[in-house]
Every structure is written in C-alpha cells, then in structure tokens.
Amino acid sequence: MFKIGSMVVHPLHGAGIIELIEEKKVLNQARKYYVIKISGSNMRVMVPINSVEKVGLRIIIDEEEVDKVLEVLKGDNDENITDWKMRYSINLDKIKSGSIYKVAEVARTLSIRSKERGLSSGEKRLFDNACQLIVSELAFAKNMKVEEVSFMVNGILERKKQEGDDKIEFKH
C-alpha cells in the first residue's frame, strides 16, 4: 500500500514519513510493519501493514485540500452540546476518525468554546492535540515549517474567538 518515503498521517500522532518496512516477530508471529518517523518529534510509530485501515493510516492531503481545511477552521460553530462528557466523547471520536476536516472542526469549536465558557483540562488537551495534528499535516502538505503553519492556524483560531466576542457583545 505505502512505500518507504511515503508521507502519511497517523490519526493519533500526526504526520510523518515511512522510514522502514520491517518484519518483527511478536508473540511468535512474524508480521510486517511500517516504521513511521513522526514530524517534529523523535517518535517512531510502528503500524502493522495488515492493520493500516483499522488504525486509520492514510496519505497526506494534497496542497489543494489545505484551503478546504482552512475554510473549516474559519467556519461557524455549529455545536451547542452542553454536557461536557458527551462533547468530549464526540470530539475524541472526530479526532480518532483520522479525517483532517473533523479534526479541524474540533479545533474550531473548542477554540470558540474556550473564549465563551472556558475548557476543562481534558478539552484543553483535545484542543492542543487537534491543533498539533492539523499543523503537522498542513506543514507537510504545504512544504512549510511547522512554526509558520502553527502561526497561521493560531491566527485563524484567534480571529474566530474574536468574532465570537463580537457576537456576544451585540446581544447585550
């Protein structure tokens, strides 16, 4: 499916490059694994080749899709779930889905919510994780430095927070 040098995304760890395809014996069973060097860290993740779909490993989005992701970040907050446990569970499922668009929805809604009502510590971690996943993939897709993409994404999310403030002020 993938080859050495393929740029891929692991739904929980972010973007990386397949460095090796190696065979390991685990529980007396030989299996082939993709060894992925995760961008921006010293982490390496091993994914069994026969579990790629189950894990959600996928190819990096192309440059044209970056604009679509940025539009999702700029979009309106359509979430108004008040039960934090349910909201956390839904957002976690969106992140685990591996869809960059769903991850962008999580970042956007949690960013707006943080300004309106604040976030629980779990939601803060989800927000940070969502942002990291977005930045790592967009940096690969746009061939930009992580810091530049992070600045761009944070700028979009800050503007969304300020728009939320404007909407709140108009209600009074």
The Cα radius of gyration reads 18 Å
Low-confidence stretches: 165-172
CATH topology of the largest domain: Methane Monooxygenase Hydroxylase, Chain G, domain 1
Tally of separate helices: 6
Q: Describe the sheet with the most strands.
A: 5 strands, antiparallel
How many strands appear in the DSSP assignment?
5
Overall geometry: globular
CATH architecture assignment of the largest domain: Up-down Bundle
- What oligomeric assembly is this protein in? single chain
Approximately what portion of the residues adopt beta-strand conformation?
15-25%
What does this structure look like?
The structure is a single chain. The protein has 172 residues and is of the alpha+beta class. The protein has 2 domains: 7-59, Beta Barrel (Thrombin, subunit H); 63-171, Methane Monooxygenase Hydroxylase, Chain G, domain 1, CATH 1.20.58.1290. The chain has helices at residues 52-55, 63-74, 84-96, 100-116, 121-142, 146-171; strands at 7-10, 14-26, 29-38, 44-48, 58-59. A 5-stranded antiparallel β-sheet has the order 4-3-2-1-5. Helix 4 (100-116) crosses helix 5. The termini are far apart. The model is unreliable at 165-172 (pLDDT under 50).
Question: Which characteristics define this entry?
Answer:
172 residues; alpha+beta; Methane Monooxygenase Hydroxylase, Chain G, domain 1; five-stranded antiparallel β-sheet
Short description:
The protein has 172 residues and is of the alpha+beta class. It is built from six helices and five strands, in the order E-E-E-E-H-E-H-H-H-H-H.
